[in-house]
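#lab-general

N.A. 3:47 PM
ok so I finally got the sequence cleaned up, no stray characters, all 156 residues accounted for. can someone with queue access submit it? mine expired

B.Y. 3:52 PM
send it over

N.A. 3:53 PM
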Amino acid sequence: MKIGVISDTHGSVQAIQKAVQAAGQVELWLHAGDYSQDGDALSRLTGVEVIAAKGNCDGAAEAKIDEFIQIGKVKIWLTHGHRYAVKQDEQELLWWGREFEANIIIYGHTHVPDCRWVENILIFNPGSAAHPRYGGGTIGIIDIDGEKVQAHIIEI
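B.Y. 4:20 PM
back already:
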């Protein structure tokens, strides 16, 4: 399954359009918060299901703080990360990921892409599509084939 991952869109329809074009055809989109409601625009634009987590800038948005998704045997924890001290380091995020038995931890909040394996867990932040901390906007792609997981960041 090819999954598009986006975060920190902050209401930018232009960033969402660029993300869709850069990602190509995906089977599912995951939005890691800060304007999780942009998931509605993403879904309308692509016709693909979008699962979103609530970020610190989402106010009364209906999204949940944490989402747990299972793709076959692969467990994904989707969060914005602001409640897990992600701007300091990944230790709390990793601790909770182990507690949740996640194979993949997807977060946002830092506006900085992050794609690395720690203790057999993929820690993945697509960066910000609309307001990157450094360089251009970014999104992520995660491919799941059985128990095999591959991931990469794409500049939009």
